[in-house]
């Protein structure tokens, strides 16, 4: 089976898990297994992204790059300062002093866009919103197919009007950040196949489905519902090639963590994680203020990870996390594809 939009042998996509889990080694492993790897650009410097792209090119097979689209930043100073004061006792455990002044950035959008125009890749996917139309057109001009992440039919229509080549339809069961274009909106519970069906009725674009994929049956269901390919992320977190921290890996297999939730507590934007003490305590307090909250808590989360403190670390996980196996990424891809024609 082939996927025309992505040109991979199998209709399976390895999610761009920013912050460490998706490594060049993971991308290489899934590519060799016939799936389509997507490199995360989020949080990387343009120089580091260029290095990762160079390594991916050595595979000799198609791959993609995912970009965080910067959004408008309002006046969040008072909210971030209040949140900083509230969670300071968490930081005191690690002798850290939280800076209440909000930090904002565009994740090096202009430089990363310039890199991808100078050194084009087969596919660029967009997360967190939609960029200016001229940026999409510029990527397409150099031969790149552009996919926008959407979570509702209205977002899908807006992306279609922008002229993108396809959509990544993300259901709310996905692990990590929600791709919602409005971070103040917490996605309502829904199965990914339901979101996919609604988007398919709204637009005529190739669709890739993401969220809650917990095994071969989920892959088959989403393909049957009209997806050209299916994204897998959480199921790769414990594989040999993933850069997932030891603390995160252990938590995914720990029976003490038996629930996930969507929370802004770690970054100021809705993201699905294992329910730990930090998320349980601060989800109702955290402001919707990305990337200010991300920068506020980054040092704390780094210290917690180094100390093996799973009660404070952001433990991104989709609802299918219980099925995440150890072993090679190639074995996960083969398992997911086992019932495909």
UniProtKB/TrEMBL annotation:
Reactions accelerated catalytically: 3 propionate 3-nitronate + 3 O2 + H2O = 3 3-oxopropanoate + 2 nitrate + nitrite + H2O2 + 3 H(+)
UniProt keywords, alphabetically: Detoxification, Dioxygenase, Flavoprotein, FMN, Monooxygenase, Oxidoreductase
Pfam family, one: NMO
Cofactor requirement: FMN
InterPro entries assigned to the protein according to its UniProt record, in alphabetical order: Aldolase_TIM (IPR013785), Dihydroorotate_DH_CS (IPR001295), NMO (IPR004136)
Any one GO molecular-function label of the UniProt entry: dioxygenase activity
PROSITE patterns linked: DHODEHASE_2 (PS00912)
Source species, domain of life: Bacteria
GO biological process, one term: 'de novo' pyrimidine nucleobase biosynthetic process
Protein name, UniProt field: Propionate 3-nitronate monooxygenase
Organism: Janibacter alkaliphilus
Classification lineage: Bacteria, Bacillati, Actinomycetota, Actinomycetes, Micrococcales
